[in-house]
Amino acid sequence: MTPLLLIPGMMCDARMWGGLPALLHPRPVAHCLPTKAETMADLAALILRDAPDRFALAGLSMGGIVAMEVLRQAPERVERLALLDTNPRAELPEVQTRRAPQVARALSGHLDAVIRDEMKPNYLADGPDTQPILDLCMEMALSLGPQVFARQSRALRDRPDQTATLAAFRGPALVLMGEGDRLCPLDRHQQMHALMPQSRLAIIPRAGHLPTLENPAATFAHLQDWLLQPR
What we know:
alpha/beta
């Protein structure tokens, strides 16, 4: 059974995937945290250094961006690809300009304020049960700390466009997003689906940027179907 590598989003850890790993038992699942380098190339190289020879690969948000770089570096090792709530394009200049002030605030002891004021408001779809998920997001971010925030911010700021990488991929693919995602909107996912015509496009209701936590049942059903698609 092909191992599955899971890459979480910015300032998230394995908890972002909720109960998915247990649901997939006995498939081997590895959590790859993109925390130890500040370029996409180096983050992907670290994952590939420890990865099995061939694997299925799923990433959400920043994790999807790292997954695309893994695919660019070693396409022959990626059996299938799932991209969740992510973006294949290089970062826009207006977003890049916000990175340095955020990093400065985080490194000066105000990571919690950056997460609370500038990131958490964009994470989730509107709903009555968001507070426990927001609390978990804060726990994950604070457990990783400001240095990881700085490295991840720089990697996102300087990331390359990966549209050519996706256009060359021929394996089973899933492009999935929460219907209310304000960070990575529908047009990004439609573009990825068009670049990989063999992919399935799934839009999860009652979810924003973190469908694995907001609507796990629907999200996990699509991921299970993706893992069972014939090569």
